[in-house]
Specification:
Elements (H helix, E strand, L loop, with lengths): L4 H5 L2 H17 L49 H8 L1 H4 L1 H21 L5 E4 L2 E6 L14 E14 L5 H67 L5 H35 L29 H4 L1 H22 L4 E12 L11 E10 L18 H50 L5 H35 L26
Antiparallel strand pairs: 1-3, 2-3, 3-4, 4-5
Helix pairs in contact: 5-6, 6-7, 6-9, 6-11, 7-11, 9-10, 10-11
């Protein structure tokens, strides 16, 4: 009478095997939650109650202007907004960072699979014959037979001493660090685009100024030529007027070279060939808006690079626990079962069943202190250095903004004085009171001060962008993917 697999599992032998397996699991599972190693605590860092370089320079409160995710909208520039939106779609560096994050997420899934046993099956069918002359003599010599086998093997590494959970914990923290790295690249690409954009606009303003100046110098040259023809001016004054005109025209050409390079840089940032992109000229005219700064302690939650460094310290701490677990026995459970028969028709009958189950433990008795170096506590100096660098960057750009604002006020007065001096010199020259050399000196002073004023405005815009980048660009630590439980799935959202 044939028996079904269900009948087979009900035999006393099978009941005994399940009893053995239950005893093994009962003896091993208590160790699965006994993780060794240090408990993680976020490294402490010194923070000041307020930024030193704020001084008397007051900025808008966060309730007045919030950076948010699209921080560039604070500049209220439609052209910049349109370009920034293309970064997330086309920038190649950002795509590479996304791929690295997806790789870290895949590594976490791979490590989490160690929570479960691995099961394999290797069915085989063979027809075999033993030699008649095979020693020692046996009743099987000279026999030809079939062998059908369906083995199923189970292997499970116990989470004793936290050997598996510590490894998974390390990969969790590394995945979060990779997500923060992605945010760092994203912020850097958007900030670089804004800096290049405002640099191009500053050059547009300088180009506009030089073009206007060239027109004025051309008129001055024609005036000198007319006076020379009338015998009221010397040829020297004509050539002086021509010299300053050509010098200014050369400056204008040089501005066009630099401006084209920034245009090409913007094209690459948005993923376009420079030949297929043009940035319409738009002279920079307005100063940067107030930037909500907050207090230094908030920076620890708002900088993705700080979050990445902190997650790597946590991952290293988990690795210390994993190294400590190497001092304890490695407990495995191995089970195998299946069917073996000489006929396919009797393969799944009770007498064809085969099985074995049992635990094993491996402990290293001597390894010449190989494990000792890996179990030392990991320093958090790199994390603290990242925090201090972040504070420095904020202070640097705060200082730049409020000092450049003061410089702009003084420079505006200098421009006004230079323009007045030029007007007086022209009046004196046209009245025959002075030579044209005085006019040229006044022209050079006026142009130099106007160019400086334009450059100061460009530096203020760049410092505003760099301050926003130093503050994290509206990013927050809550933007990191959640830390999943031991057996849950990592929720990372859409990264396509």
């Amino acid at each position: 009478m044939r028996r079904s697999p269900a009948d087979i599992l009900g035999t006393e032998a099978q009941q005994a095997s399940w009893t053995v397996l239950l005893v093994v699991l009962t003896s091993v599972l208590p160790f699965t939650g006994c993780a060794v190693g240090p408990k993680y605590h976020q490294p402490a860092t010194p923070t000041a109650p307020a930024y030193k370089e704020m001084g008397n320079w007051k900025t808008a409160q966060p309730s007045d202007q919030n950076l948010g995710g699209d921080w560039w909208e604070i500049f209220q520039d439609p052209q910049l907004n349109a370009l920034e939106k293309q970064i997330d779609v086309s920038n190649q560096n950002l795509k590479a960072a996304v791929a690295q994050f997806q790789q870290a997420r895949a590594a976490l899934r791979y490590a989490r699979a160690d929570y479960y046993p691995s099961i394999s099956a290797a069915p085989s069918a063979a027809r075999e014959r033993y030699s008649d002359n095979r020693p020692p003599p046996s009743s099987l010599n000279g026999i030809t037979f079939n062998d059908f086998t369906l083995p199923i093997d189970l292997s499970y590494q116990s989470n004793a001493w936290g050997r598996v959970s510590r490894n998974v914990e390390s990969y969790k923290e590394q995945a979060q660090a990779s997500a923060a790295d992605l945010a760092v690249v994203n912020l850097s690409m958007h900030a670089t685009l804004a800096i290049d954009f405002f640099a191009a606009r500053s050059l547009d303003a300088e180009k506009q100024l030089l073009e206007h100046t060239v027109v004025q110098y051309e008129k001055a040259l024609h005036l000198n030529e007319d006076l020379y023809q009338g015998g009221l001016a010397s040829e020297v004054e004509v050539e002086q007027a021509r010299t300053i005109l050509k010098t200014t025209q050369a400056q204008l050409i040089d501005v066009r070279v630099a401006r084209s390079q920034y245009e090409h840089a913007v094209a690459v940032l948005i993923g376009k060939p420079p030949a297929n992109f043009s940035l319409p000229p738009l002279p920079l005219a307005t100063p940067p808006p107030p930037i909500p700064v907050g207090v230094p302690s908030e920076l620890l939650e708002r900088r993705p690079d700080i979050a990445a460094a902190e997650r790597r310290v946590a991952a290293a701490n988990a690795q210390v626990g994993l190294a400590d677990a190497a001092y304890y026995p490695l407990v495995n459970i191995v089970a195998s079962g299946g069917f073996d028969s000489g006929s396919i028709t009797t393969l799944f009958q009770g007498p064809s069943a085969i099985w074995s189950v049992g635990p094993s433990a491996l402990v290293t008795i001597f390894d010449a202190a190989r494990r000792r170096p890996t179990s030392k506590m990991v320093t958090s100096a790199s994390y603290r250095e990242t925090v201090l660098t972040a504070f420095q960057q904020v202070e640097d750009n705060l200082a730049a903004l409020h000092i450049l604002e003061q410089e702009a006020e003084v420079q505006t007065a200098a421009v006004q004085a230079a323009e007045k001096s030029l007007a007086l010199s022209m009046t004196r020259y046209e009245g025959g009171v002075t030579s044209y050399l005085e006019v040229i000196t006044a022209q050079n002073a006026a142009l130099s001060n106007e160019v400086t004023a334009v450059n100061i405005l460009g530096r203020r815009m760049a410092s505003a962008v760099q301050l926003i980048e130093a503050l994290g660009g509206g990013w927050d630590k809550s933007n990191l993917p959640p830390r999943p439980e031991c057996c849950g799935r990592l929720n990372v959202g859409n990264t396509d």
